[in-house]
Amino acid sequence: MNLAELNVKTEWEYYNKVAPFHTYSLNGNELKYRYYKNEGAKVTIVVLAGGSGLADGFFLFLRSLMEDF
Questions:
Q1: How far apart are CA 1 and CA 11, in angstroms?
Q2: What is the Cα–Cα distance from 22 to 32, expressed in whole angstroms?
Q3: CB atoms near residue 44 (< 10 Å)
Q4: Can you tell me the distance from the alpha carbon of 16 to that of 35, in angstroms, rounded to the nearest whole number?
Q5: What is the pLDDT of residues 38-48, one digit of tens each?
């Protein structure tokens, strides 16, 4: 990711497309999470975001990892 040519809106749209929200129900509580799988990666990183959505504030960092993990 080249920060000099960064378009935040475009990156956000891509992030939402490739790592959309999913919902899981646990004991009657809905938990939202994002999932992305890079088929070419040798390892997987799991980011447990909690329920606040705060992790979306780090989407540029998470997006930068998508090419390698």
A1: 10
A2: 6
A3: 9
A4: 10
A5: 888 888 877 76
